[in-house]
């Protein structure tokens, strides 16, 4: 297969290494807004560099992986599907709701496969949680608790264009909560706070957020996010059922320590970042994308799934701004 990669920042560089190791890929062509960086990464992984991102569309690609800046996502997705090229794109589909809807129109019209990069769907723990919840082994679920706690905030240049903590960070929790439960969110109540660096507040964002979601079967979910968790990268999910309760992300490397005198768990080195925590999941999702691109399977995380998680984030932003619960019906396009 001939695969193109647009964008080789932190996650894009990791994807380049992963893609080069997949035996189904004969040719990997890399492009970036910074042509010199594209050449550097291509040299490191044994790929070929294109001078410009637009040059990728002259390569007769079997698939395109998009890891460029968020504002480039909608244009690249549309250009690819209009050319008949299957797409893997990191979340979100687009920075705004209007652009997201436009992308979906093109995807539905062309029927070209598009897979959105919510890697938690490919993590072994979340897969096991989904099976346990949907099999009924836990009984009925009364409470879900999810958190995404970054070890450090992003650089000042990133925050103004990130879309905000709900759209950039908690959107992962919104997607995976919908996925493990198989249920839809009907209302949200969200708030945010700033206790850290001024540049986050100055950009109109929050370094810490809390959300209460209500699902269509009455299940409640508490979602926490923070840019300040110096001990390490902490992503967990708890599903509390009428019969049993389970946890995802509770292992020897969880950056959380018990103060109980006899406790010795966890004892490992905390995860320093998201790539270390989800390395295997990132590798699995790209391997699956090759099957999607070859039309062997349906996309496991569609652009419509990306829209659903984005709408929850939109409702959170409205709830925080207006200081009230928001029904999902209020943000439906």
UniProtKB/TrEMBL annotation:
Concerning InterPro entries, the annotation shows: Gfo/Idh/MocA-like_OxRdtase_N, GFO_IDH_MocA-like_dom, NAD(P)-bd_dom_sf
Is Oxidoreductase included in the keywords of this UniProt record? yes
Q: What sequence ranges are listed for the domain GFO/IDH/MocA-like oxidoreductase?
A: 127-246
Any single Pfam family the record assigns to this protein:
GFO_IDH_MocA
Q: What are the record keywords, sorted?
A: Oxidoreductase
Say yes or no: keyword Oxidoreductase present: yes
Where do the Gfo/Idh/MocA-like oxidoreductase N-terminal domain residues begin and end? 1-118
**UniProt record similarity statement:** Belongs to the Gfo/Idh/MocA family.
This one is known as: Gfo/Idh/MocA family oxidoreductase
Upper taxonomic lineage: Bacteria, Pseudomonadati, Myxococcota, Myxococcia, Myxococcales
